[in-house]
Amino acid sequence: MAKHEHVRVAVIGSGFGGLGAAVRLRREGITDFVVLERADSVGGTWRDNSYPGCACDVPSHLYSFSFAPNPDWPRTFSGQRHIRAYLEHVTDTFGLRPHLRLSHEVLRTRWDGDALRWEIETSKGSFSADVVVSATGPLSDPKIPDVPGLDGFPGKVFHSARWDHDYDLTGKRVAMIGTGASAIQIVPAIQPTVGRLTLFQRTPPWVMRRMDRRITGAERWLHRTLPFTSTARRGLLWGIRELQVSAFTKQPAVLGLIENLAKANLAKSIKDPALRAKLTPSYRFGCKRILLSGEYYPALAQPNVDVVASGLREVRGSTVVAADGTETEVDAIIFGTGFHVTDMPIADRVVGAEGLTLAETWKDGMESLRGATAAGFPNWMTIIGPNTGLGNSSMILMIESQLNYLADYMRQLTVLGGRVALAARPSAVGAWNRKVQSRMERTVWKSGGCDSWYLDANGRNTTLWPGTTGEFRRETRQVDLAEYEIIRPKAAPVTAESTPRDTEAVA
């Protein structure tokens, strides 16, 4: 039988959020923790997404931890293998290997109100923890639509985040479903080798050129020799994006100026009027995620590429049928259809104080206190929780803010002493989310006329943060105990074998 292990903190996931939490715990002097990872290596989304052309659309020097700068980024926008290598480097540099529990998929996490701890069942044994930090991330579980007839397709089918590297696309007829951030990188990467590529597009994205270039040896030498130059570069990238926030959150009309640049980019790349019309969005720039690529439009203009301005409706044998009736014979179907963002599967595996899963608690939409804690789930915290996403900057900035909150949360538990838990008050969670949703009404994500993955089934944006990263950092600098209930073990009944001094009172 697998050994049971009790720890002070259990972290779920080993992407940027999970590794960042592990580093912060060690820097706070907490070494009694484990990182539970379902895969056999660290890296999160940068391990899972290894499709051709995979790269980040945030500048490298901003898409890295401030406490672990990398002077040797090879490009201004680095690729997947370099980002994954960076996360392996962080793991080794900060001595995280002994804390890793790889191939340990979390199957169930249940709050024990009597013991004031979390009972955790994994695929390789059980654990218990005083505190659980969920860092599974919103881009971890691929979403494939329920397409009639897909089960009967005789060819190859896979999602962009589960790329089949053993399948050779050379000369094949390929259907690419979706036009999100992954698809616009995949299309130009595979277009030269496939026989025919058919892109199924429900909604065209706004695309700007990605100003990517090789970082010179002189630049890398300068950053290694004078580290403050790397810090300054990061600060400049951060400041520019902070100045852009008001256009997304308060003055969407200003985005019309940038929209004209995007239209000019489209006109320059696509000369065919009919194709250009298919690729022109009908919603405000910024309403959906803005995509960066200098190769996407030129690839679509190649003679072996067809763009179907419609989503996939059904599959009939080896024929894929679009909603507009277009039929295409293909050998492979690649889904670039995103992830379970507002309905994260981990929520079905977390059972709180009232016996409800997190998914049941969030059935009407995700809600948390400061993007971190949820009512009914004591000593449970999420990294990249509800309304912590960004539309124009680096998620690492938001993660580091949440790590500050985690650190102060652990300090508060230490100061309170003994067996103790903090439970977010429903009133505090409600007040925080009313404020966030009120501010959201002015943003381009709500008023821009699009239906994006930022929105949940009820049309609420429970994904993005409607402010600057600096503002979020101020909001999460420390824990306000007034927003929490302090829970201690219930007093046991006094018997001949027990005296009052053996028990603790409820605070």
Automatic annotation (TrEMBL):
The keyword Oxidoreductase applies. InterPro entries: FAD-bind_Monooxygenase_sf (IPR051209), FAD/NAD-bd_sf (IPR036188), Flavin_mOase-like (IPR020946). Its cofactor is FAD. Keywords: FAD, Flavoprotein, Monooxygenase, NADP, Oxidoreductase. GO terms for molecular function: flavin adenine dinucleotide binding; N,N-dimethylaniline monooxygenase activity; NADP binding. The keyword Flavoprotein applies. Pfam families: FMO-like (PF00743). Belongs to the FAD-binding monooxygenase family. Catalyzes a Baeyer-Villiger oxidation reaction, i.e. the insertion of an oxygen atom into a carbon-carbon bond adjacent to a carbonyl, which converts ketones to esters or lactones using NADPH and/or NADH as an electron donor. Thus, can convert bicyclo[3.2.0]hept-2-en-6-one into the oxidative lactone products 2-oxabicyclo[3.3.0]oct-6-en-3-one and 3-oxabicyclo[3.3.0]oct-6-en-2-one. Is also able to catalyze the sulfoxidation of methyl phenyl sulfide (thioanisole). This is Baeyer-Villiger monooxygenase. Gene3D superfamilies: FAD/NAD(P)-binding domain.
